Amino acid sequence: MNSNKEKYKKICEERENVPIFLRFNWYNSLFSENDWDVVVEEHNDKVIGFLPYYILKKVNFKVIVPPALTPYQGVWLDCNDEQKYTNRLSFEKKVITSLISKLPKVDSFKQKFYPDYTNWLPFYWKGFSQTTRYTYILHNISNTDLLFADFRENIRREIRKAEKNLSISVLDTMDELYQLKVKAYQESKENYPFSLNLLNKVFNYCKTNNCGELLAAKDSDGNIHSIVLYVWDKNSAYYLHGVTNPSYKTSGSMSLLLWEAIKRSSLKTQKFNFEGSMIEPIERYFRAFGGTQTPYFEVSKTSSRLLKLLNY
Known about the structure:
Layout: H1 3-14, H2 24-30, E1 36-43, E2 46-58, E3 61-65, E4 76-77, H3 85-102, E5 108-112, H4 121-124, E6 129-138, H5 144-150, H6 153-165, E7 167-170, H7 175-187, H8 196-209, E8 212-218, E9 224-232, E10 236-244, H9 253-265, E11 271-273, H10 280-287, E12 292-302, H11 305-311
Parallel strand pairs: 3-5, 10-11
Antiparallel strand pairs: 1-2, 2-3, 2-4, 5-12, 6-11, 6-12, 7-8, 8-9, 9-10
Helix pairs in contact: 2-8, 6-9
C-alpha cells in the first residue's frame, strides 16, 4: 500500500464525518488495489483534504470515472466550521487546487460530487466542465408521520395496498437481487452491467461495517416482488440499488420497501437520499416521496484530442 493510501486510511479511521462513498474501506473492499488511488493534501503532517479516484484503461485511453455502485465521489476537506466564510473559500481554493495538481495525467476525468459539495470553481479555473444533476433528499427524517403525510397520494395508496398483501423480510444474500436484475434487463434486451461478485463485495462491506441492509417484499406464496439495498453513514441514508420483479410491477412493492427503508433509516441517521436520476419517469417517482430537489455536480475534463473527437 502506498503512503497516500496509508494516510487516507488513517484519516478515515479518525473521522466519522467522512461519508460512506468516500471512505478508504469502501474503495479498498470493492475494487482491486491497482484500479484506484487517492491524492492527499497535508499541512503540518496533518491530512486536510483528499480525493480518491477510480482509474480505468479502455483501449489506448486511461480515464478516471465513477466506480460502479458508488453514486458520489469527489473531494473531502477538513474545514474549520468556525472559520470566516471568506477564509473558508480561500482554504478550499488552496487545497482543491493542490489536489488537482497531484492527479495523474489521464485522457479524461469524470466524477459526481456529493450534493453538499458546492465550490467547484477551483476545477473550473483548471479547465474542467460541470453538468448539474439532481437528486431528491428527505431532511430531518426523525418524524416519519410527517414524512408520510408529505408523500403524494398515489404513493401513500400504493403503500397501503402493498401492506395488506406483502410482508417485508431482511435478506442475507444478494443472489435473488442479482437474478431479478438479470431477468429485468433481459426483458429490456440489455445486459445487466454488474457482476454477482461485485454485489457480494458491496453487501459484505455493509454487513461488516453495519451500514447497509437488504430488504425484500414477498407475497403469501413466498414470491419476491421487489428488493431494495439501502446504506447509511452518520449524515444520511442512500437508496443504492433495487429491483422489481417484472411479473409484479403493479403490486406497490417498491414503494413499500422504500418507505420501510426510510423508517429504518430514521433510527440511524438524519436524511434519506434517493440517489437521484435524470431519467424522467424515475425522477417523477422519486419526487412523489416529498423530498427536496437537490443539485449536485458532475465534473469532467477530456484532455485527449482524439478522445474529444471520438466523443463528439
